[in-house]
């Protein structure tokens, strides 16, 4: 007795399985392209960063004031810029925030002292971010 061929034994391949395979492949390619685009944008944003800041140290002044020293590095010292700093409690909840204007001039790296008013005693403070584009509600002190 001869055995039937594969085609005779099993039904013809459904067109649905070929479509689903193509859809999975297209989806995978789209995901890879999205990751590549996101990676390129991230690298460009890091390379083109004109101002950055890091916390040097913090000190609890009182129950509602956290003092923070931050080291600000700027490429363009001739431009006014600002940083947002925040204080957090032991559970890492934000309990205070302040915007600090950095006037034009000075060194490329500056240490700035900031007092952050808090709603409850804070455990630490950190830099949220910096920019050279001042929002409309901030004005440069004269």
Layout of helices and strands:
Layout: H1 6-9, H2 15-47, E1 51-62, E2 65-74, E3 81-88, E4 94-102, E5 109-117, E6 124-131
Antiparallel strand pairs: 1-2, 2-5, 3-4, 3-6
Question: Overview of this structure, please?
Answer:
It comes from Corynebacterium vitaeruminis DSM 20294. This is DUF4307 domain-containing protein. This protein is α+β, with helices and mostly antiparallel strands and 142 residues long. Helix content is 26%, strand content 39%. It folds into 2 domains: 15-47; 52-131, Sandwich (Immunoglobulin-like), CATH 2.60.40. It is built from 2 helices and 6 strands; from the N terminus they run H-H-E-E-E-E-E-E. The model has no long low-confidence stretch (mean pLDDT 87). The N and C termini lie far apart (102 Å).
Number of DSSP strand runs: 6
Order of helices and strands: HHEEEEEE
So what's the overall shape?
elongated
Return the domain count. 2
In short:
The protein is α+β, with helices and mostly antiparallel strands and 142 residues long. Helix content is 26%, strand content 39%. A hairpin with a 5-residue loop joins strand 3 and strand 4.
């Amino acid at each position: 007795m001869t055995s039937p061929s594969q085609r005779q034994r099993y039904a013809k391949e459904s067109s649905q399985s070929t479509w689903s395979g193509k859809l999975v492949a297209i989806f995978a390619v789209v995901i890879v392209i999205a990751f590549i685009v996101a990676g390129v944008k991230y690298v460009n944003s890091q390379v083109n960063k004109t101002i950055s800041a890091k916390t040097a140290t913090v000190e609890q002044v009182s129950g509602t004031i956290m003092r923070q020293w931050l080291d600000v590095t700027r490429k363009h010292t001739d431009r006014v810029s600002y940083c947002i700093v925040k204080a957090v409690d032991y559970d890492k909840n934000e309990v205070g925030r302040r915007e600090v204007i950095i006037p034009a001039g000075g060194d490329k790296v500056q240490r700035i002292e900031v007092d952050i008013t808090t709603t409850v005693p804070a455990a630490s403070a950190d830099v949220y971010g910096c920019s050279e584009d001042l929002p409309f509600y901030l004005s440069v002190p004269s």
